[in-house]
Amino acid sequence: MSDANLTALLRLQDADMRKKDMEARLQLLPKEMDALIARRDKLNSEIVKAADAVKQEELAIKKRENEIAQLTDKSQKLQQQSALVKKNNEYQAMLAEIADNKFRIGEIEEELLERFDKLEQLKSDAEKIRKQNALAMRSTRSEFEELLEFSKSVKAEIAQLDAGRPKLLAGIPDDLLSTYSRLLKGKDGSAPVAKLDNGCCGNCHMRVTTQTVNELSKGKLESCDNCQHLLYMDGE
Ligand SMILES: [Zn+2]
User: Fold this and answer.
1) Buried b (16+ CB within 10 A) or exposed e, 153-162
2) Model confidence at 1: pLDDT above 60
3) pTM of the full predicted structure?
């Protein structure tokens, strides 16, 4: 096995492993993008929720204010009617109703004071959340755009690796190439060609036989007895 074969094989392997890396990275992208979309949706729904709480409180206040207006109106009418009433018990009943209304209005006004405080708090919370989340949403968006850009550049690099592959195959003997290709398709995703490391296979780390070491020392490529990966020995 000549050095030229080894060099060519390692060059091919570099390109193939790089492509595997890129493909693995591409496979993770949809999940990362979905996570960013989910984050954006959550941030947005927090803004909507806070704004909705303000709206609900404003509606509740409006309702109480209407109630006061109705009671006031009713009392005014009773006041006018009472002037025309002849019977004392009817007159007393009207005064009692007016007093009831006044009491109820007092209760509502107290409630309103609390509600106005609450409304102020809700408004300031909503504004804080809106600002914070808008900022976080902007950074989420730019992360998303970065991923899109990254995806484009990875795809371009894969296309480039594919285009350059035939040239890398040239000169590698068929039998060697078929062994290499079989190993490349292995489930563990490891590199087919490994360096002998201190008498051990650089892939599976098992010690190889003396016979294999002897062959390797002659500059030959040999298969690991354990994992069948192609082994070579460094020149030094
Ligand atoms: Zn091995």
Assistant:
1) ebeeebeebe
2) no
3) 0.74
CB 223 within 8 A of CB 196: no
CA 98 – CA 53 distance, rounded (Å): 35
For residues 186 and 85, what is the distance between their CA atoms, to the nearest angstrom?
Answer: 103
pLDDT in tens, 6-20: 999 999 999 999 999
Instruction: Determine the distance separating the centroid of ligand 1 and the alpha carbon of 168, expressed in angstroms.
Output: 25
Q: How far is the CA of 21 from the centre of ligand 1 (A)?
A: 22
Q: Specify the CATH class of 26-170 in words.
A: mainly alpha
Q: Kindly compute the dihedral angle of the four CA atoms of residues 206, 207, 213, 216, in this order, to the nearest 10 degrees.
A: 20
CA 204 – ligand 1 centroid, Å: 4
Q: Are the C-beta atoms of residues 224 and 203 closer than 8 Å to each other?
A: yes
Report residue 74 as tokens. Answer: 């009713």
Three-class SS state of 109: helix
The rounded Å distance from CA 27 to ligand 1 centre is 28
**Cβ-Cβ contacts under 8 Å for 157 (sequence gap 6 or more):** 18, 22
Q: How far apart, in whole angstroms, are the C-alpha atoms of residue 51 and residue 128?
A: 11
- Rounded to the nearest angstrom, the distance between the alpha carbon of 221 and the centre of ligand 1 is 13
Backbone angles phi, psi at 118, to 5 degrees: -60, -40
In the reported structure, the alpha carbon of residue 225 is separated from the centroid of ligand 1 by a whole-number distance in angstroms of: 7
